[in-house]
Amino acid sequence: MGTEKVFTPIDIGSMTLKHRVVMAPTIHEMCYGGHPTEAYLAITDTYARSGVSMVCVGGATIDPGPTGDVFPNALSIASDECIFGLQRLAEVIKAQEAKACQQLYHPGRSAARYWAQSNPEMLPWGASAKVPFMAAPKWEFTKKDGKWQVVNVMPPAPVREISAEEIERLVQMHVLAVLRAKKAGFDAVNIHFANVTLVMDFISPYTNVRTDGYGGSWENRMRLPCEIIQATRAAVGKEYPLIVRIAADQGLGEAGIQLQDTLLHVVPRLEEAGVDAIDLSAGVLDHTPNKIIPPMYDARGCYLIHSEAVKKVTKLPVIVAGRLCDPRMITKAVENNRCDVAALSRPLMADPLMPKKMITGRPDDVRMCVACGYCMSEAGWTKYCAINAESARETSLPKIETAGRPRKVLVVGGGPGGMEAARVLRERGHDVTLCEKEAQLGGALRIAAAAPLSREWRTFTRWHMREIDRLGVNVRLETEVTKELVASLAPDTVVVATGSVPGRDVPGADQPIVVMEEDVLLKGTAIGKKVVVIGGAFWDVETAINLADRGKDVTFVREAASISMDRLSPIRALPILFGMLQSKHVKPLFSTKIVMIERNGVRIADSAGNTSFLEADAVVLSTGRVANRKLIDELRGVVADLHEIGDCVKPRCVADAVYGGRLVGARI
Amino acid sequence: MPAVVNKGICNGCLGLERQECIFNCPYDAIVLVEGKAVVDKEKCDECRICIEVCPVKAIVLE
Asked: Which of B23, B48, B61 shows the shortest C-beta gap to A300?
């Protein structure tokens, strides 16, 4: 173990952590009826074996009723029947000599997500009825008063102000939940007062306009959290470690909790009430999800700025999360006293051996989380990971085991899918040759990594190249594989991962002013001043922003009223992208049909069918991708053991390519 | 696209106890040359922490 401060022990109340890298509390939708599934126990085991000093099991609801339900497949600690499953979780963690911590919370307004509002008894609890919950927002672009705006077309879900009696019940729910966690064997609890919780809504001036003793002044708004801590402390005893998670900044400007408020009003009162550590998060689930789970637009370690400030106003240990994917940054941040403990959530999904690699001095071997947001995709919060196919698939994916009979395998295409297949195949002892037609590896990720807003993807390609080199995969660049080359190499098995090519399905796409998005990004193809970007996905918006940054006069045209988010999720939500479009003065035209690209511009039609002409020096085209199936068609019937993965099967996202590579790699 | 310091804006954290970018860079990629911060492009990993901590907002990704 290194001698840096990050590897030294730290006390949280009566509990000693052996070092300062922990798992951050993370909600996993891997439960059934509030109880953990085998798959959840398995992923928890993975975290426990990662080398972290503490695993914090993510948010368990403390309310057994409909007002406590926010994620249908998440954990519950709301009744004594939950203790059995919680015991299994604590046991799995402690078996690896990590400390076990349980996070618990009341979801408040957020419980609106899955419950009908017809029955007023079932209305979610709020500090006040003032702010409804934006349940499952559906963003669309509309023109209002001559200006484009982004609006949520789903009706917000109403909430109701809870009564004084219900506040008493709420305090008791917290106390009982902490006692259950203790009984289940957890070494500590993390009481959640941030992001999705009712207690945060009491603290925040944005959601609390009560006129009783729980509203108004900071003292009144902090009354509930302090009462919860005091009552819990009285019930659980002086020794039991209580960690509290707060939103240092809600990202709502002056309307919400800001860092200054946290320093002046929140942290000192919590310290006085008797907590043992402050755990920092940020954001509100429905308004600023990108603050809770910062996207790759934000810097690595973007909340160290908060923890550094909080450390100056408290003697308590300060834990922080937020894009702490970079081992060197963590080491430096602890050394420089910017935080006491680094909490990892997504970085552990991307590389469940990251802490061990840090401890053994191998920071470059870490597969760094790129903050793409796939783990919170529409598929739910199951915690699948785009770059680590094994995450949340511990019980289903075949293990990487030495192959019974080593074979000669040819992998065609050095994108994320092909590289993943090559890595796994070589790891298992096969003789692997990887051919790539370009001079560099990376495939479609090279396009993504060339865009300033998604540069982080390059770290994944870099990791893959490092692994392929370490394992001894025979890499041939600038090698276009043909039927003849396959015949001369005579492999036992061929894995085709030839990816996709840009589609040109727009009238007039052959005009000389048309440039493919990937050429602009990869080759820096020169384009004139006036640019029209025709696209459909969020990365095309990023391209428009990028071009505006380069001084272009950009118009973004999209046929539909919204943007395809693929399966990347709330953290790249449309209001954020739209805000960026506006600040860079990109002109958006949604619900606008391309009639024809012409010699000097684009003829468009609005939703009413009125046509007009947009003059342009260049038209940047990104209208989907087409599977590159040339080789697979040639080899079918020629090569006996033939596999296809990634975009050449059907253009999809990087997660599908990596999963395909991992799966085929383990099966051959 | 490594980080780059705008020399017109950077004041070398004059009067402060330390240069925030140098203090925080995980890759030891920044040094002070004639009172201004300079990024070693080879060492920079584009983590952007220097952009976060710069008190005068003198750093951008190139």
From this structure: B48
